[in-house]
Design a protein that fits this description.
alpha/beta; 5-stranded parallel sheet
Length: about 260
Amino acid sequence: MTWTLYGRPLASRFLLGTAGYPSPEVLRQSVIASGAQVLTVGLKRTLAAAGDNGFVAAIRETLKATGGHLLPNTAGCRTAAEAVTLAHMARELYDTPWVKLEVVGDEHTLQPDPWELVSAAAQLARDGFQVFPYCTDDLVTCRRLLDAGCEVLMPWGAPIGSGQGLLNPFALRVLRERLPGVPLIVDAGIGAPSHAAAAMELGMDGVLLNSAVAQAGDPVRMAAAFAQAIAGGRAGFEAGVMAPQDMAVPSTPVGGRPFVLP
């Protein structure tokens, strides 16, 4: 079943980052194996790399072949002003109104700065951008981002690149319950396919990750594993995952009446 992000229909709920792969060819194969239709790229990384060893060309070629969408991000920014400037550069360079907004406030956890993030989101929305804010799982911050003009939210599962999975499933569950209809994409901290499946079973609409695939022993195979986990987790959510119980519940209830085996 398709879903939409800012009006664009998508079949895959897997969004994939493009940094840290051993080669452009491994990146290309990983994207194909993942089935991802949205790829992120950091503008600061692109500018710093100059020639980039063919990675940006591989990203563009793969997107053209698959009909996917590019999601430039403002990774590395520390203030709203810096993020807004970088977003405008990304729009000129990649010709897309989409931007993954990152404004980091802590060097140790790389946690988003909620005040700078909301400020940047509001300015970019006024400037005609379609903003995908990387945020924490705080409900109040998420509401402020929606008020600022964001139509999509990207709460973290754990600190970026940590691979710890979902540190606060309760907060993600609350977001899903209190923000019905808002696309929620878990971004950051996912380390294993089981983490991604768990996020989808909570009712998240998608998963964005990078390191878990790029740093795997076999990135292509891991990309395929995540694709299966995300699809399975979503199917489980839609089917209705059973509620956990505090005690054993017989799977074959006995009605208290005798029966005779043939």
